[in-house]
Amino acid sequence: MRRLEDREQGSGIRDQVAVLSQRSHRIASAAALGALLLVAGCRQDMQDQPKMDPQRGSDFFADHRGARPQVLDTVARGQLHEDSYFYTGVVQGPNGYRQELDQMPSEIPVTLEVLKRGQERFNVYCTPCHSRVGNGLGEIVQRGFKPAGNLHDQVRLSQPLSHYFYVMTHGYGAMPDYSSQLPPADRWAVAAYIRALQLSQAATVKDVPTGTQIRNLKDIASGEGHPEYAQPWPMPSTAVQAYKPIASEGMPGMAPGYPADPRISIPASKPAPAAQK
Fold first, then answer.
1. 14-36: pLDDT as tens digits
2. 147: how many CB neighbours lie within 10 A of its CB?
3. Rounded distance, CA 2 to CA 19, Å?
């Protein structure tokens, strides 16, 4: 009896061990399978990232286009430009085409602070080509770049104020646009300063208020120890177009006025042959 009881007890222990072993194997297998699924789900090649690439196709949308069209009748935040003249510098003219105006927008008061801001921005972004006085002989031009526009020739003087804003926004010729560097308010400030700069370079004694002390530029330059500042600005031989200064366009000497290359000549046309009788 005792041996039989021992056998039965031993058999029960073995059965419990077997059950525990099976459970352990099941738990281990489930954990391994879960880890495998987790690793497989988390694996993502760097060249196949789960994101929407610009100008790439997509299987998510029915038209397979990753770039989605703008929702109709919506405006992105910060892009509601109610005053087109402030943001574009042009208005619709009577003939339906864009028209530039010789006036500042109502949002920008013409104050000394605005002119100082325009001067600071002009000296940063415009002087490399146009120089500090706007004569088109900046440091880049003196090192071989195409001569910049002379802001003091008759063409630029006759252009309306918003023309400079429009050019800074869209660029002109070899000049790139500066819309990313200059927000609209700064572009208007620079345009206002350009007008003040034009007045300063072409001002006469009659334009000076009564009682204001007048000093000659040559005397100021000599007093500061730089008399060459009041002399014409010759362009070096490395410039693309090494023209002599044009004294009639102000002092210091200015870059060539419009047209940009006055030395271009059109050959005289030959007389038409006589008609045969």
1. 666 566 667 777 777 777 777 77
2. 25
3. 26
If you write DSSP's letter for every residue of the chain in order, what string do you get? -HHHHHHHHHHHHHHHHHHHHHHHHHHHHHHHHHHHHHHHHH---GGG-SS--TT-B-SSSTT-BSSPPPPTT---TT-----HHHHHSEEE-TTSSEEE-SS--TTS---HHHHHHHHHHHHHHTHHHH-TTSSS--HHHHTTSPPPP-TTSHHHHHS-HHHHHHHHHH-BTTBPP-TTTS-HHHHHHHHHHHHHHHHHHH--GGGSPTT-----HHHHHHHTT-GGGGS--PPPTTSSS-PPPBGGG-SSPBPP-SSS-TT--PPPPPPPPPPP-
Q: Cβ distance 191 to 134 under 8 Å? A: no
Give me 72's structure tokens.
Answer: 């109709």
* pLDDT level of residue 7 (50, 70, 90 thresholds): low
Quickly tell me which residue has 């500090």 as its tokens.
Answer: 132
- Is the CATH number of domain 86-204+217-249 1.10.287.3240? no
Q: Which of these, 166, 191, 159, 180, lies nearest to 87 by C-alpha position?
A: 166
List of long-range contacts for 5-11, beta carbons under 8 Å, 24+ apart? none
User: What interhelical angle do 161-170 and 184-202 show, nearest 10?
Assistant: 130
State the Cα–Cα distance between residues 152 and 254, nearest whole angstrom: 8
Please give the pLDDT value at position 102.
94
Q: What is the pLDDT of residues 117-144, one digit of tens each?
A: 999 999 999 999 998 888 888 888 888 7
- 216, pLDDT greater than 50: yes
User: 69 or 161: whose pLDDT is higher?
Assistant: 161
Q: What is the value of pTM for the model shown?
A: 0.56
Residue 179 has pLDDT above 70, yes or no: yes
